[in-house]
Design goal:
Blueprint: H1 2-11, H2 16-38, H3 46-64, H4 66-69, H5 75-95, H6 98-105, H7 108-120, H8 122-130, H9 134-148, H10 151-159, H11 161-183, H12 196-217, H13 226-229, H14 237-268, H15 280-288
């Protein structure tokens, strides 16, 4: 097993375009964050900035680190990659309030000339309202999770670099969609009672539980592509499959339990003194200072 892992690390090469893109995003975020601090606008605490950077790093780890070189060798590694792309990375990035920092990190002229008109364009606003509905977010994330684990679709993604990239992109996009109603980063205005998101998180565990149970208790290898590769790692393909199922079940349960506990505490103490969120009007003022004040409307 050690020899196989060592071989995977030796075959790995740094993905320069991806790495540069991640570094650029991080620098733009930090530029905006430091600008907010310099202007005495404590809109984003340091721990939120750390959350954003950690989430960005986890996305890079899933796509560009040596971990990515093992996703075609072990289903358990492939499952870790999916968890980073869809569950951990997007959640941590949204916790970092990316809109506020990036709107200050990007050049002001670009924000005014491109982003503001784009997000004020009626078709974009209509699509945004549609895909910010919790029901849509839940259904699309569940469909992506289940759909890409259908054996024929799973095999297609492993056999084609293009479809593999599409799979990764869909996990990231639908991961952001799933976490958007839960984290509720600005500029989204919370709609509906917060207790409903406890049900949202509970129901989200069901597709993962069903899929992980199917993989764990199946008496056959669901994805035959791992029949040959798993032997290099001192485990059978069936054992690898059971390990992947256990990872999915335990990680998803823990990750969903954390925001559920936070939401529960906020429901019990909605005006807690430790709450560090700025009012919606204040966040509007912060972002509007980077763009034309007449160009951003908050309803």
């Amino acid at each position: 097993m050690a020899h196989s892992i060592h071989g995977a690390f030796e075959s790995w090469t740094l993905p320069v375009p991806l790495t540069l893109a991640m570094i650029l995003i991080a620098l733009l975020y930090l530029r905006g964050w430091f600008q907010l601090q310099a202007d005495s606008l404590n809109a984003i605490p340091a721990w939120r900035a750390g959350s954003f950077l950690l989430g960005l790093f986890l996305l890079w780890a899933a796509l560009g680190s040596p971990l990515a070189a093992l996703d075609m060798e072990l289903l358990s590694v492939h499952m870790v990659q999916h968890l980073l792309l869809m569950t951990l990375g997007p959640a941590l990035i949204l916790v970092g309030a990316p809109v506020v920092s990036l709107s200050h990190g990007l050049p002001k002229r670009f924000v005014q000339a491109v982003l503001v008109p784009l997000f004020r364009w009626p078709p974009v606003q209509k699509i945004g309202r549609l895909f910010s509905q919790p029901v849509i977010c839940w259904l699309t994330a569940a469909a992506a999770l289940v759909g890409w684990h259908v054996p024929s679709v799973f095999a297609l993604a492993l056999q084609s670099h293009v479809w593999h990239a599409v799979e990764h992109a869909s996990f990231i996009c639908f991961g952001f969609l799933f976490w958007w109603p839960v984290v509720q980063p600005w500029p989204r205005i919370p709609a509906g009672p917060r207790w409903s998101f406890l049900l949202y998180l509970f129901l989200a565990t069901l597709p993962c539980d069903i899929l992980s149970a199917f993989l764990a208790f199946s008496d056959r290898v669901v994805y035959p592509v791992y029949l040959s590769t798993s032997r290099q790692f001192s485990m059978s393909a069936l054992e690898d499959q059971q390990c992947a199922a256990a990872l999915m079940w335990t990680c998803v349960t823990i990750v969903y339990l954390v925001p559920a506990a936070i939401l529960t505490m906020r429901l019990l103490a909605p005006r807690s003194a430790g709450e560090d969120e700025l009012p919606h009007s204040e966040l509007h003022r912060v972002v509007a200072s980077q763009a034309d004040p007449q160009s951003i409307e908050v309803s």
